[in-house]
Amino acid sequence: MNKFFVPNKVYEDRISICKSCIFYFKPTGTCKDCGCFMKIKARLAPMECSQKKWQKTTKIETPEDLPQEMIEEALKVWELIKKGVAKNQTAKKQMIEIYNVIYNTNYSTGTNCSSCLQTCFNGIKQIYKKHKND
User: Fold this and answer.
1) 3-class SS at 27?
2) What is the DSSP letter of 3?
3) Beta strands in 18-122 (DSSP E)
4) CA-CA-CA-CA torsion for 114, 75, 48, 109, nearest 10 degrees?
5) From CA 9, how far away is CA 43, in angstroms rounded?
């Protein structure tokens, strides 16, 4: 699990800024400037807003479990990939990004490597199995 999550207060401040920004695309929760899924990016200490509306920080916490919004994102992605094939490129990219964040890996979001994609799929599946009844 990634050990570089920001405390809840920092996350809430960041995501609030994102949601009020003209670049925030509400239907997908992505930034139209950088293309990132903001529920993921805003949770990571070393990340910063491409528009400089919030900065990276050294305030981190190592949670016992994943932050709730990360679990929710993984469960949403699961619905788009659960048949073993991503419904679209956005779902594939989101699966890889959330996997990279949670497991501290660096798979390319454009990869077509079946082994890499299977690893990401299995990681999201594990989160689904653990949290499906929460």
Assistant:
1) coil
2) S
3) 24-25, 30-31
4) 10
5) 10
Please, are residues 37 and 30 in contact by the beta-carbon 8 Å criterion?
yes
Report the phi/psi class of residue 50: left, alpha or beta, with left for phi > 0 and alpha for psi in -120 to 50.
Answer: alpha
Return d(Cα 115, Cα 33) in angstroms, integer: 30
**Residues 40, 97 contacting (CB under 8 angstroms):** yes
Compute the distance between CA of residue 35 and CA of residue 47 in angstroms, rounded to an integer.
13
Residue 57 amino acid letter: T
Query: Structure tokens of 124?
Result: 């999201």
- pTM equals 0.64
Residue with tokens 């679209």, as numbered in its chain: 88
pLDDT for 1? 47
Identify the sign of the CA torsion 77, 80, 85, 87: negative
Q: What is the mean pLDDT of each run of 10 residues along the chain (134 residues)?
A: 76 94 93 90 89 83 74 91 90 91 86 89 92 76
